[in-house]
């Protein structure tokens, strides 16, 4: 957890302009199939903590759609649990915990996950944290519950980045996966687009127009140092990190029409990858680093293709509909998410690459910028509703939908950060 603490600390220290005041409001619709009934008790003495740990855990689990949350009140004696009573209340599992203020100003957060059916302990955590990490400790507990009960790694403790626009004020913001704990990474009077997380979660690449043209930068979120990665003639856009974190794929128009290039993270060793007479853009690496997915109009309209990193063996991937853009590939390489225009609407689709079956996941009509959660079970994207752009999250089976809205401004260009080691 050292790197995760470093990142959070770096963001808190580096955000000298302060946290944004307007936090996200989350609306949830739909539920997952076969919800697991879980009772979450108020943690004993958690009033001493700056964050109410149990409420954050409940909100995380409920938002996932995988659990039916049973309110358990406050359990002060976590060592004497009547398993049968909780099973009778319909709970298959019970979350209990305590919080104690330590003499050095930290908080000792302890938690247990109990199996009411087998009447045994499934998991426990004990962590002393500073005040700024109490929210993180709650997310980590929710991650543990999610993993122990579903077998899937939880993503509640991960981070997201996105752009907020209010008039001519553009902000690149980083926040918890639930939209809380916003921190400012960059402010500009010119557009900021296409943020992309580095695999280790310490840097974000993005495109800024502050030089009155699109230029690709990489910014270290801990030190705030930033590097120009691509500032060639014409347009420099669409940065995407290679899984090794040493290089990026970008889309450049330096040779006349936009093509995909690769470049080291320090801006050196620029090499052209794609080589078509059309427009090739929006590159995305596969998790194994063996392929780059990209959008090209070489067949007459925008479709998604896959090629080797050196540009060889390019093959078309999408065939449903005449307009498919913004490819994003899941970590296991099995599912492609993209935006497709059908009947004049821009909507989020996923494609099972093995079967060729596609599915529409959104019921909105102006979607853009999909991004997979690192566990591959949810997709965040930007959409428009009520005249403003906001963020939405949908499970890959389409059952659970969330809408994240801010009190002011348009929020767009989301990218979901990686698991932290």
UniProtKB/TrEMBL annotation:
HAMAP family: TolB
Summary of subunit composition and partner proteins: The Tol-Pal system is composed of five core proteins: the inner membrane proteins TolA, TolQ and TolR, the periplasmic protein TolB and the outer membrane protein Pal. They form a network linking the inner and outer membranes and the peptidoglycan layer.
Name assigned to this protein: Tol-Pal system protein TolB
Residues annotated as domain TolB N-terminal: 24-121
Signal peptide: 1-22
Keyword Protease attached: no
Keywords, ordered alphabetically: Cell cycle, Cell division, Periplasm, Signal
InterPro entries referenced in this protein's UniProt entry, alphabetically: 6-blade_b-propeller_TolB-like, Tol-Pal_TolB, TolB_N, WD40
GO BP terms: cell division; protein import
Location of this chain's protein in the cell: Periplasm
Protein's UniProt keywords contain Signal: yes
Function: Part of the Tol-Pal system, which plays a role in outer membrane invagination during cell division and is important for maintaining outer membrane integrity.
Subcellular location, principal: periplasm
Family: Belongs to the TolB family.
GO cellular component: periplasmic space
Protein source organism: Duganella sacchari
């Amino acid at each position: 957890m050292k790197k995760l603490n470093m990142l959070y600390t770096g963001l808190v220290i580096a955000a000298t302009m302060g946290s944004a005041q307007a936090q996200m409001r989350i609306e949830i619709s739909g539920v997952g199939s076969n919800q697991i009934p879980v009772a979450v008790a108020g943690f004993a003495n958690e009033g001493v903590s700056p964050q109410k740990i149990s409420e954050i855990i409940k909100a995380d689990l409920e938002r996932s759609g995988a659990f039916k949350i049973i309110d358990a009140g406050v359990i002060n004696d976590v060592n004497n649990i009547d398993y049968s009573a909780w099973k009778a209340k319909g709970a298959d599992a019970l979350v209990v915990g305590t919080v104690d203020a330590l003499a050095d100003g930290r908080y000792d957060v302890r938690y247990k996950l109990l199996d009411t059916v087998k009447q045994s302990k499934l998991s426990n955590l004990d962590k002393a944290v500073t005040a700024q990490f109490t929210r993180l400790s709650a997310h980590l507990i929710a991650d543990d519950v999610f993993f122990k009960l579903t077998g899937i790694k939880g993503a509640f403790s991960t981070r997201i980045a996105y752009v907020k626009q209010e008039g001519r004020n553009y902000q690149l913001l980083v926040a918890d996966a639930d939209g809380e704990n916003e921190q400012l990474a960059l402010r500009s009077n010119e557009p900021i687009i296409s943020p992309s997380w580095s695999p280790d979660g310490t840097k974000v690449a993005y495109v800024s127009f502050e030089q009155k043209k699109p230029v690709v930068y990489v910014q270290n979120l801990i030190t705030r140092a930033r590097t120009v990665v691509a500032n060639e003639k014409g347009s420099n856009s669409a940065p995407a990190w290679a899984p090794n974190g040493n290089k990026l794929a970008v889309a450049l128009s330096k040779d006349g029409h936009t093509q995909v290039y690769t470049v080291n993270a320090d801006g050196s060793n620029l090499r052209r990858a794609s080589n078509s007479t059309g427009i090739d853009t929006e590159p995305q690496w596969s998790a194994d680093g063996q392929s780059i997915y990209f959008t090209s109009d070489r067949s007459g309209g925008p479709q998604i293709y896959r090629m080797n990193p050196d540009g060889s063996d390019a093959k078309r991937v999408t065939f449903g509909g005449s307009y498919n853009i913004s490819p994003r590939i899941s970590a296991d390489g099995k599912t492609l998410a993209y935006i497709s225009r059908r009947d004049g609407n821009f909507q989020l689709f996923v494609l099972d690459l093995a079967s060729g079956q596609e599915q529409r996941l959104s019921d909105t009509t102006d979607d853009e910028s999909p991004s997979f959660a690192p566990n591959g079970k949810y997709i965040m994207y930007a959409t428009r509703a009520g005249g403003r752009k906001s963020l939405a999250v949908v499970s890959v089976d389409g059952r659970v939908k969330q809408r994240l809205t801010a009190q002011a401004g348009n929020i767009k260009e989301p990218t979901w950060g990686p698991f932290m080691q």
